[in-house]
């Protein structure tokens, strides 16, 4: 069975982007929420700071969408390569 690279790319982009969006958004509403998670995310994504502003929510979400898409595409490609 082969994985669809396009489907897994979109799925992982939405999953990871959504996860970072919701944690960052709730951190914007309540600054103590998810602080450790967002500090970890800010250590990975250059230019992203977990300061609890709407701008940081958008920047973190965009980074996560891109990261999830690339990770999903690589995972599907590797799976299809080794599943033969």
Describe the structure in your own words.
The protein has 84 residues and is mainly α. The chain has one domain. Helix content is 76%, strand content 0%. The protein contains 3 helices and no strands. Helix 1 packs across helix 2 and helix 1 packs antiparallel against helix 3. It starts with a helix and ends with a helix. The mean pLDDT is 94.
Q: Please mark out the parts with pLDDT under 50 across 5 or more consecutive residues, or reply none.
A: none
Q: How far apart are the first and last residues' alpha carbons, in Å?
A: 9 Å
The Rg value, from CA coordinates, equals 15 Å
The biggest beta sheet, please? none
Portion of residues within helices: over 70%
Number of strands: 0
Shape: elongated
Beta-strand percent range: under 5%
Quickly count the helices.
Answer: 3
Average pLDDT, to the nearest integer?
Answer: 94
- The SSE string, one letter per element, is HHH
Tally the structural domains. 1
In short, what is this structure?
The protein has 84 residues and is mainly α.
Helices and strands in order, then pairings?
Blueprint: H1 5-29, H2 35-44, H3 54-82
Give short descriptive properties of this protein:
elongated, mainly alpha, single chain, 3 helices, 84 residues
């Amino acid at each position: 069975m082969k994985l669809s690279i396009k489907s897994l790319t979109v799925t992982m982009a939405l999953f990871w982007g959504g996860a970072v969006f919701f944690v960052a958004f709730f951190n914007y509403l309540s600054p103590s929420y998810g602080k450790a998670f967002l500090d970890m995310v800010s250590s990975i994504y250059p230019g992203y700071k977990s300061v609890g502003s709407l701008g940081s929510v958008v920047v973190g979400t965009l980074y996560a969408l891109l990261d999830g898409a690339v990770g999903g595409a690589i995972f599907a490609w590797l799976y299809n390569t080794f599943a033969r």
